[in-house]
Amino acid sequence: MSSVSSGEWHRNAACATSDPETFFPLSYCHEDQVRPARRICGRCPVRTACLVDVMATENPARRWGIYGGTTPAERAALRRAGLTVTPAPTAPSVGGDAA
Ligand code: SF4
């Protein structure tokens, strides 16, 4: 599911033709409900850009949905671990710096 902000990368999102409900399972705790979205994200050519975007733009108090192959709890854990995201003009990168 492409995330909340817009960008050129959205045009290449693997989820563009998928059922949006796939990315909003009833339970994020049951892998069988999360796996279909993870599979789509796993073959998505813009996964890194998606994850960078959602980490930079989503409201931490209102995390919802699977983006970049991550659940809301996983993104919260990345943020707690000190993940930094740095969008680059040509090649977005994701780096971690767990303290
Ligand atoms: S990584 Fe997943 S949620 Fe993000 S654009 Fe690709 S398919 Fe959609």
Radius of gyration: 13 Å
**What is the number of beta strands?**
2
Number of domains: 1
**Which strands sit side by side, in order, in the main sheet?**
1-2
Tell me what the structure shows:
The protein is mainly α and 99 residues long. It has one domain (8-87). The chain has three helices and two strands, in the order αααββ. Strand 1 (84-86) and strand 2 form a beta hairpin. The chain starts with 30 loop residues before the first helix and ends with a strand. The model has no long low-confidence stretch (mean pLDDT 85). Bound molecules: iron/sulfur cluster (SF4).
Please summarize what this structure is.
By secondary structure, the chain is mainly alpha-helical. The protein contains three helices and two strands, in the order αααββ.
Helices and strands, with pairings:
Layout: H1 31-42, H2 47-57, H3 72-80, E1 84-86, E2 93-95
Antiparallel strand pairs: 1-2
Pfam families: Whib
Keywords: 4Fe-4S, Disulfide bond, DNA-binding, Iron, Iron-sulfur, Metal-binding, Transcription, Transcription regulation
Organism: Pseudonocardia endophytica
